[in-house]
Design goal:
single chain; alpha/beta; Rossmann fold; six-stranded mixed β-sheet; four-stranded antiparallel β-sheet
Length: 565
């Protein structure tokens, strides 16, 4: 009965130990994932420009799972082995301190061996985590661009590149395996040496009747028990080193500073009139560099030197993009920005939405520096439609609502009708409940653009609507559908448009011409053409063909009408 009771109690203790360990491990990993994800959402856009998605996904998935293995399998066992070692050492010293010294004579060699293994193991597992992150980043990039890969017959070249990454990962693993494979038998060898020394010295002591045979046999058994947990610790040490490498990468993300922060006492922003002003704004993008120097590739190009009379380029940036930009937009006014690629047009929008902060100058909304507003309050009044529309997995309705439960189904339909998206949505299999796959791959480019317009309208940015020209990648028929809606949307709202279409430029109140980060011309379409400056050259290069096509199309329509009459 006593034996049976002991077995039952032991089984119950092991059950609760495993249960509590798993519960604690899962809770710790849950909290850690939430902390990493929450912190990632607070980081500025510049951070994501320099860190591939695959690497960041590795932080939240693989690295956190490695820590879970440490919490559930490593820590408890390590504590048990340490307590066992302490008990064995105490028993050996209590039995005979001279035999204990003989047994512990190999400890210096054991310490040196452990230090070597620790250094090798740490570097190996750090290399493993880096290489798995590179594999995930490369895999994510190739899956996202699979159509381009197949179109340009890049399968073999990409497979060769993936093989190199995979082989690097294998090599890093083999180095870790080699270190452990050498350490484990080396500890066993030192244990055998300690046993041999005990038999040699202890045997002499037994012959001289200084030590009993029972004490010597006990010491030999204790010596085996002393080295067995050390070997077990070596195995658990692999888990701990892998966890340490993962924790370094996780906490490197958590330590990433939030460069665009809310003020401690934000100014209230219940409504927006729509007045926008730039005052002597100088802006440079941060140099894109992965979080973690060891993951970075070759160093980037040197920053561009400042021009004559310009302030010095800030450290850690790629050079000035906007140079002393100043302008004011009245409430309800529509303004188009035009210029060559790289002139700084999109940077204007990035600053207004506060994806970035300027290094010099101020961006004001309704006369207040936007850095005094909470980002959430500011962006609630901004409708942003980009050329590259991002749709989430879900339904058409959920992509228009985008998590705002205050937007009803009727408001979603009205927004879709307003931008002429309702017709094609009604033709989908499940209409507004139709499933949307990742990035909206089953929808055409024009359909994604219309959904993006409906999304912006349904959130009803009260006055301020910022548009990055979103009609540049749709077909002519779709463009005609949204042009009328676009004019209705812009009416009464402050509108900033990055212009690519002639029809958009002709209908705005004012055009600002950007050249090398400076505003060089300002006026209406006709006024700027009459000046014969940079806008005229841009018009001749970029917009003249559009005007000719529009004229030809109008002529064709008139001819068709004449024949019909």
């Amino acid at each position: 009965a006593l034996y049976l009771g002991t077995v039952i109690v032991g089984a119950a203790v092991r059950y609760w130990q495993n249960y509590i360990t798993q519960i604690v491990g899962q809770q710790v990993m849950y909290e850690l994932r939430m902390e990493v994800f929450t912190h990632l959402q607070r980081l500025a856009v510049a951070f994501f420009a320099g860190n591939p998605v695959g690497r960041l996904m590795t932080r939240i998935t693989n690295d956190v799972d490695t820590l879970y293995e440490m919490v559930t399998s490593g820590v408890v066992t390590v504590f048990g082995d340490v307590f066992l070692l302490v008990g064995v050492v105490a028993a050996m010293v209590w039995l005979d301190w001279r035999l204990a010294l003989v047994a512990f004579s190999v400890v210096p060699a054991l310490v040196a061996l452990t230090s070597w293994f620790q250094a090798r193991s740490r570097e190996s597992y750090r290399a493993i985590r880096i290489r798995i992150a590179r594999i995930n980043a490369y895999l994510n990039e190739n899956l996202m661009g699979m159509s381009i890969v197949q179109l340009f017959n890049r399968e073999r070249a990409n497979a060769a590149r993936f093989e190199d990454l995979n082989r690097d990962h294998l090599t890093a693993h083999l180095e870790a395996v080699w270190s452990f494979a050498l350490f484990y038998p080396a500890v066993g060898f030192l244990g055998a040496v300690a046993t041999a020394l005990l038999i040699w010295y202890g045997g002499g002591q037994v012959v001289q009747h200084a030590v009993t045979l029972g004490v010597l046999i006990a010491f030999i058994q204790y010596t085996e028990r002393f080295f067995r947990p050390i070997q077990d610790l070596a195995e658990k040490y692999n888990i701990l080193q892998a966890a340490m490498a993962s924790s370094e990468r996780i906490f490197r993300v958590l330590d990433e500073p939030v460069t665009v922060e809310d003020p401690t006492d934000p100014a209230p922003l219940p409504r927006v009139r729509g007045q926008i002003e730039f005052r002597n704004v100088w802006f440079a993008y941060p140099a894109t560099e992965p979080a973690g120097r060891e993951e970075a590739g070759p160093p980037g190009e040197a920053r561009s030197a400042p021009g004559r009379g310009e302030p010095p380029v800030p450290a850690g940036t790629d050079g000035w993009v906007l140079r002393g930009v100043s302008f004011a937009i009245r409430p309800g006014e529509s303004v188009a920005f035009v210029g060559h690629t790289g002139a700084g047009k999109t940077s204007i929008i990035n600053l207004i939405t506060r994806f970035y902060d300027p290094q010099r100058g101020q961006v004001l909304v309704d006369g207040v520096d936007i850095r005094r507003y909470a980002q959430r309050d500011l962006r609630r009044h901004i409708g942003l439609v980009l050329q590259d529309v991002f749709l989430f997995s879900g339904t058409v309705a959920s992509n228009i609502r985008l998590g705002n439960r205050e937007i009803s189904d009727d408001e979603i339909r009205r927004a879709a009708q307003f931008v002429n998206a309702h017709r094609f949505i009604e033709e989908l299999p499940d209409r507004y409940a139709t499933s949307v796959v990742e990035r909206g791959a089953t929808l055409s480019s024009g359909q994604r653009q219309l959904i993006a317009f409906a999304r912006a309208i349904s959130h009803n940015p009260e006055i301020l609507l910022v548009l990055d020209e979103a009609t540049s990648s749709v077909d002519t028929e779709t463009e005609l559908l949204i042009q009328e809606a676009l004019q209705n949307v812009l009416r009464g709202r402050t509108s900033i448009i990055i212009a690519h279409r002639l029809s958009t430029i002709q209908n705005v109140d004012r055009i600002l011409v950007l050249h090398k980060g400076r505003i060089v011309e300002e006026g209406t379409h006709r006024e700027l053409l009459a000046r014969g400056g940079i806008y005229t050259k841009l018009y001749q290069l970029q917009y003249r063909d559009q005007e000719l096509r529009q004229t030809a199309a109008m002529g064709g329509d008139r001819a068709t009408d004449a024949r019909s009459e």
